[in-house]
Design brief:
Cyclin A, domain 1; alpha/beta; 54% helix; binds zinc ion; single chain
Length: 256
């Protein structure tokens, strides 16, 4: 029954044409968008319409929620969905946006670090929290390996199996086991490289734990796919299987 209602509501959402203003936000704010082919652009627009309509969008810290913010965030998150059908982050109900990174007091032992700033967070069963300043900066640059929205929504995909721990579910068990092996090996290598001060393609934040490793690898995958394929081919090939797309084609695309 719920499925049927949801399908009907979504069909109604998609009957509305994609607003011109929204197209302007995508072109101006998301570098990736200009590199997509027409089929991908159509798919992305549909995902945006559904996500904008279905999520609760909240702005805090003096920020006023508007369509540009919703469309930009939904557009970036939907890049992760271009290879799949009929999934629109149903596990994320609320997106909360702050103007800048949020200051958090973190406890480490007896010390309260009052200067810890977070540009984003994703909570299992809870909201995605984003800094609009960082969202926009990362969306408008391509190839530096940083993309806040991709990072946080990758955590949400990771959470689909019940917890955000970096373990992924593939269609077949063999690939799931292969991911566990490759992820484990690559995580160890990154941790060692970071500890010994070597420069790494995958951002050193990925050495925090396996959940961060997957989220950071997703940023590298969408931002630096050619380098990633060259240096971490097994990891790259598994992410191609997971996301069911190959972002390398956007690098050579003539659409931009
Ligand atoms: Zn993270």
């Amino acid at each position: 029954m719920f499925d049927w209602l949801q399908k009907r509501r979504r069909a109604q959402i998609l009957e509305t044409s994609f607003p011109d203003d929204w197209e302007t936000y995508l072109t101006a704010n998301i570098v990736h968008f200009r590199r997509l082919n027409d089929i991908e652009k159509t798919k992305l627009r549909k995902a945006i319409q559904i996500m904008v309509a279905e999520k609760d969008w909240e702005a805090h810290g003096g920020l006023q929620m508007n369509e540009e913010i919703k469309v930009t965030i939904a557009g970036l998150a939907s890049l992760l969905l271009l290879g799949v059908d009929d999934f629109y982050f149903e596990n994320v109900k609320t997106v909360i946006v702050f103007p800048k990174p949020i200051r958090r007091e973190t406890n480490s032992g007896w010390v309260i670090d009052r200067d810890t700033y977070h540009s984003g967070e994703a909570w299992q069963g809870g909201p995605v929290i984003l800094s609009w300043q960082d969202t926009l900066k990362d969306a408008q640059t391509f190839g530096n390996g940083h993309n806040l929205v991709i990072h946080e929504f990758a955590h949400c995909l990771d959470g689909l199996d019940g917890d955000m721990a970096g373990s992924l579910q593939f269609d077949d068990r063999q690939t799931t086991l292969e991911w566990d092996r490759v992820c484990g090996e690559e995580f160890e290598t990154l941790t060692r490289d970071v500890r010994e001060g070597r420069e790494t393609l995958i951002n050193d934040y990925g050495a925090t734990n396996k959940a961060e490793f997957f989220a950071v690898c997703s940023e590298t995958f969408f931002e630096k796919p050619i380098q990633m394929q060259g240096q971490h081919s097994e990891l790259f090939d598994l992410l191609v299987k997971y996301y069911q797309l190959d972002p390398r084609k956007w690098i050579t695309s003539q659409n931009h």
